[in-house]
From TrEMBL:
Name the record gives this protein: NADH dehydrogenase, FAD-containing subunit
Pfam families: Pyr_redox_2
Gene3D superfamilies per UniProt: 3.50.50.100
Protein family according to the UniProt entry: Belongs to the FAD-dependent oxidoreductase family.
All copies of domain FAD/NAD(P)-binding, residue ranges: 4-256
UniProt KW keywords: FAD, Flavoprotein, Oxidoreductase
Length: 349
């Protein structure tokens, strides 16, 4: 029996890692994910508003040498995983890239973290009558992209954006003012520094919770070391501190400060997937793996079709003075989205 690498999750980090490991020829690689589609998570706001798709066939993203299994992993054991159909698969190395999202929204509201979330939200938005009120809770990138996309797609709805801090808090002052101007242009009501305890505070016909998503509890349930939020604890090579055969990548890990701030984004997921692949291939070859690191360049924020804001940042994700907005920003944003898919396909680690 050959060397086997299993990858849990076919998102940006998991697909990146699988492609790079397979390209080395060091092992047979199998991706385990319930879906047979690659979800472009950075397009889910478009799907939610009914203005565009957010998936591509998984076989167009994965290296031809990567095998797939449409299944959900229910437990990670000693060199093996258990699937939701009862099958057990062994591994020599495992990449833990389960991502985030998929939890329930409070009190019958909606989220936009996953394909299923966005699909349900699209149906709910489509069923609203003109004049209905949509409240989006959360002033970060997901909340802004969702609110603006819905406002453009359904201009006769009343869209409100509610946040407990400044809107677009991670963006510089100049960029934030451009965001506020765009919200006014679209007729979106903005309530900043407002605490929401439940839907009754909002007076809305439909509530979208764009607050930070939770991570799956697979690592915790499997007895692996996790932080308080359930993220897999890894060292600076992304190796699990509880099992050297397991390597983490993406949203569902917590890494030492030297790795850098792990923002829930494709901008972090792709380099983490690449680093995870290096750690796996080094371990299989008996070499010491290099430390992982993340360096950011920009935050890209869609503000409805034909408009976006690109906020350039330093390597630690702190905003610089330079921004690009409007149609020029939208062109840059679209190129970034397309480049990201090419980067996932990538080259050998």
């Amino acid at each position: 029996m050959g060397t086997t690498v299993l990858v849990i999750g076919a998102g940006y980090a998991g697909a990146t890692a699988a492609n790079r490991i397979a390209a080395t020829g060091a092992a047979e690689v199998t991706v385990l994910d319930p879906r047979e589609e690659f979800v472009e998570r950075i397009r889910l706001h478009r799907l939610a508003a009914g203005s565009g798709p957010a998936t591509v066939p998984l076989d167009r993203v994965l290296d031809r040498r990567v095998r797939t299994r449409a299944a959900r992993v229910t437990a990670i054991g000693d060199g093996e995983v258990t699937l939701d159909d009862g099958d057990v698969m062994r591994f020599d190395r495992l990449v833990y890239a389960v991502g985030s999202g998929g939890g329930p929204a409070p009190d019958g509201g909606h989220r936009v973290d996953t394909l299923e979330d966005a699909t349900r939200l699209r149906a709910a938005v489509g069923g609203l009558a003109d004049g209905a009120v949509v409240a989006v809770v959360g002033g970060g990138l997901t909340g802004l992209e969702t609110a603006t996309e819905i406002a453009v797609a359904r201009p006769r709805l009343a869209v409100r954006l509610v946040t407990d801090a400044d809107v677009a808090a991670g963006i510089g002052d100049r960029g934030r003012e451009r965001v506020r101007a765009r919200l006014r242009e679209l007729g979106i009501s903005l309530r900043e520094h407002t605490t929401v305890t439940g839907p009754a505070d909002l007076g809305a016909d439909l509530v979208v919770w764009a607050t930070p998503p939770a991570v799956p509890d697979l690592a915790r349930r499997s007895g692996l070391p996790v932080d308080d939020a359930g993220r897999l604890r890894v060292d600076d090579t992304l190796t699990s501190v509880g099992d050297p055969r397991i390597v983490g990548a993406g949203d569902a890990i917590t890494a030492p400060p030297g790795v850098g701030f792990v923002r829930a984004s494709c901008q972090a997921a792709v380099p983490l997937g690449t680093a995870a692949a290096r750690t796996v291939t080094a371990g299989l070859a008996g070499r010491t793996a290099p430390a992982a690191s993340i360096a950011y360049q920009a935050q890209c924020l869609a503000l409805g079709p034909g408009a976006a804001l690109v906020q350039f940042v330093d390597s630690h994700d702190a905003p610089r003075r330079l921004t690009v907005g409007g149609r020029a920003g939208a062109l840059v944003k679209e190129q970034v989205v397309r480049y990201t898919l090419r980067a996932v396909r990538g080259r050998a680690a």
